[in-house]
Amino acid sequence: MLSIEKIVVEQCNNSKYIRPFRLSYVQDGKSKLWDLMKSHDSVAIIIHHIERRSLLFVRQFRPAVYFNRVYAGGEQEVPPVGTAIDGDPRLGLTVELCAGIVDKEKPLAEIAAEEVQEECGFNVSASDLERVSTFRTGVGTTGSMQTIFYAKVTEAMRLSKGGGNPAEGEYIETVEVPISQLYDFILDESIPKPTGCAFGVSWFLKEKLRPSFVEVMRQNYLQIAVVSSGISLFAMLTAVGICSLRK
Amino acid sequence: MLSIEKIVVEQCNNSKYIRPFRLSYVQDGKSKLWDLMKSHDSVAIIIHHIERRSLLFVRQFRPAVYFNRVYAGGEQEVPPVGTAIDGDPRLGLTVELCAGIVDKEKPLAEIAAEEVQEECGFNVSASDLERVSTFRTGVGTTGSMQTIFYAKVTEAMRLSKGGGNPAEGEYIETVEVPISQLYDFILDESIPKPTGCAFGVSWFLKEKLRPSFVEVMRQNYLQIAVVSSGISLFAMLTAVGICSLRK
């Protein structure tokens, strides 16, 4: 049950999370300025429940997404302190890959394994994670790095219901999407999700699933028909040849 | 030729681009705070050069990516004003989908068409763009929306070399990746790129390309062999039957 209320704009001085600064540089002889901010790198994990033939995601309330979808008071202006941002809190729910920030000196795979346990409740070992690749998120503002992993889980690996770290005030729900519905899910705009989630699903569909034979037949019917006809013709000619020899 | 020098941290007050603010809210009875910032929505375009069998991307210097890759002076601290950020400027080059921010009251497809012309030099009409889907970028900080389109171009549609809007100080280079190399390209970590770029390529490979017959044969050799054998057996039996009837 999502219970979120009293969403109000507050003063924001010396934020621990949003620390803007500016770089100056000279590009092709011209002076330029760019405002950016410090941010953490992150890991994200494509979690494949192999018994249930599904992928697991996390759903949570994201204030920034909520604000962006609800507040229509001018693109350039920060709302004045005290402004109530009224709307259905469900507009702030996103579905994402299980993920976490890199805020400790540990191998990325270990941080990823911890997030799988914390957010989704499965005990995966860092050495069992498959590294997919790394990307840059927020290229305009933070340039931070996101490394994506792939993990297989089964019910035998379940330790808890997940739900995030209560000490960090996380309220995270696990969402399961059957493999057969994954592609519709990533293109469904009614479920806000990051591009990293859409890429993770695409990678999984390509790398971990063989295209179904029916789909392959449909997409390649002409070529398969030609090959099959060729094989059949050869078989018929062979058979006719054998018959003739017998005569 | 990339010429970028004298990259230095400057004072950043009242940034036009990074405007932090704070939301307070009550979730399940507990008061919470979240720092976020205002940001523009954006469009991005998967550009398919159909004659050249390639996709077109843009390469540019991204100060935030450069900083994130070069500066090792503590994850939490903003570097003091005057700090020189020394490193190979090529570390700040990213390859991305052609993209632009939504800063005018126009249909998204029109803004996308303008970006294709400005950054890559091709005249595409908004009505010819295919809308792929929308995603949320920066779910932690901005929650802004990115809408991805697909465009087909030919040399007959070329108006200029592209390169971005000089009035906005853009220095953008077009990068062409042959279809045969696309999948390796998105997983190649030596080329920094956003997850949106990786998703766009994945979508293209799935939606706009039929899997090659060789690949299909390889992935489905057992099933295809069974079907082909069945067809051949049927053909042989038919031929033998005909031969028998003739006798």
Automatic annotation (TrEMBL), chains A, B:
A biological process (GO) of this protein is:
nucleoside phosphate metabolic process
Chief localization class? cytoplasm
What does it catalyze? UDP-sugar + H2O = UMP + alpha-D-aldose 1-phosphate
- EC nos: 3.6.1.45
GO annotations of cellular component type: cytoplasm
Alphabetized InterPro entries for the sequence:
NDP_pyrophosphatase, NUDIX_hydrolase-like_dom_sf
Q: What is this protein called?
A: Uridine diphosphate glucose pyrophosphatase NUDT14
